[in-house]
Amino acid sequence: MSIDLDDLIGLNMTTVHDMPLIGHVDVAKALLAGVSHVDSSPRLVAAGMRHSQGGHTALSGGRVLVMEALNAVNYDPATQTVTAEAGATWSQIHHTLLVHGRAPLVHQSSGHFTVGGSLAANCHGRDPSQGPIGNTVVSMDVLCGNGETLTATSDNEHPKLFSAAVGGYGCCGLILRATFRTTSNPCLQEIWGFENQVKNYVGVLQALPNRTGAAGTSALHYGWLCCLEGNDFLNEVVYADYVENSGGAHALALKDEAWGTSEVLRASWSAATQDAKFQKALWKEIKGLRLNPSHATMHHRMNWMRAAVSFTASRGDPGGTRPDRVEMLQEYFVPVGQLLAMLAAMRTHLAPGNAAGIRLLTCTVRVVQPDTCHTALSYAPGVRVCLALEASVPLKGVGHERAPTAEAADVFRLLIDVALALGGNYYLPYYPFATSAQFQKAYPKGQTRLQAAANEYDPGRAFSNEFLRFVGV
Ligand SMILES: Cc1cc2nc3c(=O)[nH]c(=O)nc-3n(C[C@H](O)[C@H](O)[C@H](O)COP(=O)(O)OP(=O)(O)OC[C@H]3O[C@@H](n4cnc5c(N)ncnc54)[C@H](O)[C@@H]3O)c2cc1C
Fold this sequence. Notes:
The model is unreliable at 313-320 (pLDDT under 50). The protein has helices at residues 25-33, 90-99, 115-121, 159-165, 199-207, 261-271, 276-288, 339-350, 406-421, 436-442, 446-457, 466-471, and strands at residues 3-5, 14-16, 44-47, 63-66, 73-76, 81-85, 102-104, 137-144, 149-152, 173-184, 187-195, 212-213, 216-225, 237-244, 298-300, 325-334, 359-368, 384-396, 403-404, 425-426. It has three domains: 3-66 and 449-471, Uridine Diphospho-n-acetylenolpyruvylglucosamine Reductase, domain 2, CATH 3.30.43; 73-184, Uridine Diphospho-n-acetylenolpyruvylglucosamine Reductase, domain 3 (2-Layer Sandwich); 187-435, 2-Layer Sandwich (Alpha-Beta Plaits). The protein contains twelve helices and 20 strands. Strands 11, 12, 13, 14, 15, 16, 17, 18, 19 and 20 form a ten-stranded antiparallel β-sheet that branches. Strands 5, 6, 7, 8, 9 and 10 form a six-stranded antiparallel β-sheet that branches. 25% of the residues lie in helices and 25% in strands. Flavin-adenine dinucleotide is lined by residues 45-52, 56-57, 67, 86, 108-109, 113-114, 116-118, 120-121, 123-124, 169-170, 174-175, 309, 312, 329, 429, 465, 467.
């Protein structure tokens, strides 16, 4: 049996052996027992919602473990912690927490991702007081490649396993479940701000997470940089603080994961790439949001963590039909004081009409606190500002041979170099533009630490994927 499997951007077609559904931990254990040390024996690949964009959930000839059915969630009021199996999505966890007036501390801007995939990427979110998700883990159970099931914590229980499994993209074994600290789920009012020069925004970011505006302290924060042609490109910025409003009326229900401002912005940008006038009008509307009190939307915290990703989950440009372009994400983390230098490089290389043909659709801004677990592939050793780019990228080749053009790849590599030179980093779950040398520079001890952990917990490399192969684990 074999299956041709691609991820959501459609640039990583891989022929895998099969995709067994893991409805019970024993199924995973039996599959693990069947992996022999012979090189030709199919290796196991963990897969969550498969939103990563660089072969992280595939391996030629591998067995892709579909984890969605392993999704039990339980809240413990005594410890205010939530325990979720690896295939549970944040959206599922929201339903359990809502009843108890609690919310996750950290996950992506959307609830679509699984616990396993979020931990394996060590994701970050919109709460400027929080670091990557690993910081919020009390403990986690891992089915290691050596057959043992171990409980790992960041400090006293198998810390080496913890720091390789969190942010290690499936290294060492299969995360089965994890217990997370939670926070309260207050009503948050969205308050818009605007700066016509990004240099004035740096102070806003530097004051987070304790910046107190007229309305209170920012519990969540998100910025959108202008992607219009001209002087405003990556210079004007619209941002939103989400501030507690205890008197605010809001429904204590979970909203649909509908499009929010960023989805509308991005979709409109894509649709209007040929129509500069429309883009201008759109940006004006967005800027106008902050002046219009009727837009003072209120939701509880979790509802602000439920943006839609269905838009991105389409192959290629909107409609998914263009063979010569694809939309993809890239993220860079730089010290807050280096934001302007990073943006200067982006302005040079990504401006509309750039020689590489890259169309920047959106560029959002968040603040991430340091990774206190010192994970092997830590992207936030200190406070970092995260620039998340969504871009329409030109492709060369046809069918499964499609790949970003050399010119576009060069630009993304150059931006990685700039981020590294500024003491920053790039994020690993996306299309792997980075060279091996750039990876080594960005994550200096990463390969050695992952290899050391894998030698102990998965010496036969029963668990693997294309990303781990690239890293040399
Ligand atoms: C539209 C979009 C928005 C995003 N927004 C954010 C964001 O706001 N913040 C952020 O930090 N990231 C963001 N990301 C990146 C995202 O967090 C990662 O791609 C994440 O890994 C996706 O989760 P998933 O369930 O789809 O994992 P998958 O893509 O299925 O898997 C990702 C990795 O995790 C491993 N894995 C999965 N399950 C397990 C398991 N049980 N045990 C061990 N390893 C496992 C896989 O082998 C793979 O290496 C975004 C991505 C997209 C496409």
